[in-house]
Amino acid sequence: MALSVDSSWHRWQRRVRDGCPQSPSEATPLLLAEKETRNYNPAQQRVVFPNNHAFHQDWAKFSRRYSSNRICTTKYTLFTFLPQNLLEQFHRWANLYFLFLVILNWMPTLEVFHREITMLPLAIVLFIIMVKDGLEDFRRYRFDRQINCSNIQIYERKEQSYVQKCWKDVRVGDFIQMQCNEIIPADILLLFSSDPSGVCHLETANLDGETNLKQRRVVKGFSQQEVQFQPEHFHNTIVCEKPNNHLNKFKGYMEHPDQTRTGFGSESLLLRGCTIRNTEVAVGIVIYTGHETKAMLNNSGPRYKRSQIERRMNRDIFSCIGILFLMCLIGAVGHGLWNGTFTEHPPFDVPDAKGNYLPLALGGFYMFLTMIILLQILIPISLYVSIELVKLGQVFFLHNDLDLYDEETDLPIQCRALNITEDLGQIQYIFSDKTGTLTENKMVFRRCTIMGHEYSHQENAKRLETPKELDSDSEEWTQYRCLSFPARRDQGPATVRGQGGSQPLRRSQSARVPIQGHSRQRSMGRCEISQPSVAFSSSIEKDVTPDKNLLSKVRDAALWLETLSDGRTPKPSLATASSIADFFLALTICNSVMVSTTTEPRQRVTMPPSTKALGTSLEKIQQLFHRLKLSSLSQSFSSTAPSDMDLGESLGANIPTTDSEERDDGSVCSGGYSTDGGYKSSTWEQGDILGAGPGASLEEVLQAPALSLAGPELCYEAESPDEAALVHAARAYSFTLVSRTPEQVTVRLPQGTCLTFDVLCTLEFDSVRKRMSVVVRHPLTGEIIVYTKGADCVIMDLLEDPGCMTDTDVEKKMRKIRARTQRHLDLYARDGLRTLCIAKKVLSEEDFRRWASFRRQAEASLNNRDELLMETAQHLENQLTLLGATGIEDRLQEGVPDTIAALREAGIQLWVLTGDKQETAVNIAYACRLLDQTDTVYSINTESQETCDSILNLALEEVKQFHGPLKPDGKLSGFCLPSATPPPTSGAAAPDVGLVIDGKTLNAIFQGKLEEKFLELTRYCRSVLCCRSTPLQKSMLVKLVRDRLRAMTLSIGDGANDVSMIQAADIGIGIAGQEGMQAVMSGDFAVSRFRHLKKLLLVHGHWCYSRLARMVVYYFYKNVCYVNLLFWYQFFCGFSGSTMIDYWQLIFFNLFFTSLPPLVFGVLDKDISMETLLALPELYKSGQNSECYNLLTFWISMADAFYQSLVCFFIPYLTYKDSDIDVFTFGTPINTISLATILLHQAMEMKTWTIIHGLVLAGSFLMYFVVSLVYNAICVTCNSPTNPYWVMEGQLSDPTFYLVCFLTPAVALLPRYFFLTLQGTYGRSPILRAQKIDRLPVDKRELEIQSWRSHQRPATIPGEAHPTNRLGSPASGQSFRSSSPKNLSPAERRYKEDWVLPGERCSRDHTRDDPYSGDSWAKFSSGEHLLLEPSRMVASGQTNSNRPFSWGSHRRSQSSLTI
Question: What is the pTM of this model?
Fold first, then answer.
């Protein structure tokens, strides 16, 4: 039971009395009676003194300790660029390795090549990277200089005025004056705003990508300034927390001269990089500057991720080092053995100056080092550069894929991480958010329940069944142009005239997050209306068709409000009407929605509609209501046909009234009446209505509004789509939010009267409390009312206990309302609706005064501020009275079911991690094919670790009976999704398994060390659904699967709560949706729709992996094959370290002759066409199993390289044996043969042939001959004493050269050709089969694909039954059902149809007693397809509730496992 305000107040006083220290307490500063001397601790807190005459000395002393506002994001300076860049490059061990070889070659005894030649490759690589880094850093320098030199108005103490200075001159404690549309230069505490209510509007697109305006408020005590802020009158000291990177957290207090304190938080902090909007002037004092601002502390730079291929490649490079070490060791030993065969020193063994000869051991060591220099290219230094270039090419084609471009948002795919594109082809687990990722995040009001009565809104449901939604802006503008409005009196600059007439201006000044890449030109007319003027304001979200039954009830609510305004006692029959009024008032007030107009979408409405010269008093309005016949009112309310007149028109007209001074509280005024509620989305406020005097008849009242539509339509700008949907729903019933300020909110009632509520306190929504509350003073009754909305699982636990009621009738009524509301909530959840509960509470003046004092003390505290604020919220939000609940629909995105089905066929396990309630998430899971009706679904809900352990054991035992033990992974490399061995006794195919689990169960798993059992169970499941999970739990699950199973993971989400999950996965993908751009900015890739994931993974992921994997294997083969030629020659040159190929030819071979074909291969090659990959998703499994690049393929390529090098060396050797040719004449055919063999090997690997492929291969071969002919013709003394002069020219005139060059490559490539032929003929690999299908004509290809897919579908075996088992949990005492397939009865088939289409039944069918008895339900539990039917678990000894659709109440103490 929650504590009352009184008990919390005494507990708070006791805590202060017992634990108050002698020094000023930051936790309870306002409770100290005596004044304390100032005592600050700069090590734990930041103290800010203002830069004015009163505090100038203190400011000069403290500001010196803080950093300046000058930013520097560059890595280098002019003096540190060269040494620092070289140091960074030599952190790569490959560069260190080649630097070591260069140093060795400079030693005279070890010199193999010319020193300059050895330095050339390393110098070229270092120079290219140095130029790239230098250009990038120079761009950063220019950007920093532009930012630092931006202008801003800074208060100058000596001149007593604001002076224009640069951003870099801003210091902590300076006063800054900012104008509208200016960017904030530092983190500034807001002290003044030109807005009368002390509000400043920010656009935070530069920080989080969200273009919705955020409100920041002036520090308490500074909001009532009538004139411009005077810095010299500011005599306060600011104490706040040290700089940190929490964008949404800030705490501190302002100490006044009398040592009283005023607390403030993030609601008063203007962050650097944000833009001032809709506020003419804002003044603040600088808190954090430069690199200590929150924006800069969050700028951690790009994250570097290593792909799986790169990790595999690093291991294989160590294998190449081992091969190199072995070859060098053979060379050293061979050198010693060779020299040992001479009885005396040979002529080539030259002694030193003293005539001494090197010992054989030392000579062998020198030869070992010489061989390292000679065979250095065995380690492919150019591979790293080639991979980077290939990935750039892959990203280019990925970015320009029109199928991944979203025309509605004008966004292509973004690639923010260039080094992990190939990982897209190896994903094994996908973790997805639900709201905004699988769904559209367009919240549409569907139905509601008020005081236990459900209103199904059938007309609204029919409207939402429209298959295709029109463009919101064009639809609204078309409706506006079709309506015949009278001429408007003023046509200011707020409209734009074009060919189609004048259209309201759109929000054009809002900054958008810079999107990498391009934008595509749209057709004329669409580009102007592509974006709604305000977020969450499309026609499908705004247009709400009222329920006719609820409309009639709103009439009574209007009459109830009339009795309140008249001062009369409400009738008992109007008690329900009061709840309806409170329900819609809560929807209208309890939010943070900003009101604007269509003509000025970003200009906030802060004043209620003008009363002008209205001379009729409120009493005359009341007299009009008395004269109105109730029958006429009923007739006007019961109309269900859509019309231009809404509820407001049927209740009242624009009757002139006197000024607001005639009211004692001044809070009731008359405003324009709405035509905005019932049906139309293009609605306008009414102005003065002529002829509607005090004696106007009802017909005149109803007809008058249609004659004059003078005001622009109200726009609602919300931070979340849920809030916008509820406000639009309330507006449909003419409870219209007219204006909002931090102190007041104005609501227009159905009868046209405007009520202005004083906002006493607002408790914002947070993910911990899962609710929001607003404390207001009712203008008619003077009561202090708390309106609360939040998640049903939270609100239901905070309701007033009916057992405390003294009146038994009231107690029974309350229990009945709660029970009915819970049933309606379960119904909404089964329909896939998002549910929110609405509640209220009335406070006494004394209770609120105590609580407000409690709240102020918590706000002024510096230590444990968040905990204290949470505690104050809990003290207020208890003993609530339930008003009702709402059901909001969030429809699936287009293509989501097909995408999920394709990803599952590809062998990818999909987990959905959502914060929604379990019933809603399960329904969405069935709708998007995450779960199937034939699946066996385990639902686990428990808080007990022992119960969770028992349930996991039972579930594993049950699953293993059907699937058998997991097969061990038989692959040499790569993780394969486990397959299960079916038990030999089972003759039918085992059913697919799904798992549904909630956040409390996840806590039990993590705290109870049950991760291994949980993972073992999930490996049998093809889908996992985690409900009520927190952002931390999401990231923990991703890390658990990634680290324990060593699987490739991908996370996709659209909101800030998905950032931790996105960053924890191997690949993070953000969706540019309705919830800002935080997910996009933290992800490696960004898409606009979930359906883009299908082509991104199945096509581009497969291509990127296949291309890069085969290119890496080819690079290893190429280098090993070529370097072995030099190694074989050592056996015939006495292991002297000499070469038969010219040094420059060795350099040119890798630099020019064989560098371009692998790049083209890695960028353009397609092993399978896009159409086939999309039609056969299971081809994706080749990447999951690392079939293109694993340990086996690496060593096969190494063996092939050794064989081809033997052939390429020994066939020319045997040909020219016993001849008198020189060494270069012998080496030139070998070099030519090896080049031809390597290029032809590349050609055999290519699966796609285009003109580019042919030109590159032919051009590389021809370039070799051209360069060789020119080089051999001009190089007379290039390599004295042996020179390659005229060698190539001589070889081209020798027929033997041609014979050897044609014969040797054929012999070298014969084994690989034979292997590829056998593989293509007899291979059963799906990839090979798909390649054969690609070569068929289109009609035959489609037939083959259909035949393939038909064989993949598992055949159902009717009549097969699995054994029925009874599961029991000893810890929980619950009963669990297993089902055995039998034939369904007709009633049971109807029951199944109700589960598949839960929204088809009328709402009253759900509220009455369930027609199925316990026997019929027991019979149905043996279903044909092992259906999961949700059932409420009961303890042993209790009877079943016989409600198969009841998922359980908000109480989560029960545990359930339902099969």
Answer: 0.68
